[in-house]
Amino acid sequence: MQIALTIAFIIISVVLAILVLSQEGKDNGFTGTFTGSVDTYWAKNKKHSKEARIQRATAIFGALFIIVAALLSSKWM
User: Fold this and answer.
1) pTM
2) What is the CA 30 to chain-centroid distance, rounded?
3) How far is it, in rounded angstroms, from Cα 69 to Cα 5?
4) Alpha-carbon distance 77 to 73, whole Å?
5) 3-state SS of the chain?
6) Which residue did the predictor score with more confidence, 41 or 67?
7) What per-residue confidence (pLDDT) applies to 3?
């Protein structure tokens, strides 16, 4: 059981690193205030975009990472 969890942990770690590195940066902070950026149709419907899917997958794999790490560090194994 511990070997299977360790292999799953390594796979989840690699996938999580790839997902985090593939995300786009957030550039709407200080410059967006002065340029007067407005909400466009694209900005309002970002939940269906590739970026939203990557963020959702990152959250899922992050949760799996924490769960598997807790299982591996528990005294039951």
Assistant:
1) 0.71
2) 24
3) 9
4) 8
5) CHHHHHHHHHHHHHHHHHHHHCCCCCCCCHHHHHHCCCCCHHHHCHHHCHHHHHHHHHHHHHHHHHHHHHHHHCCCC
6) 67
7) 94
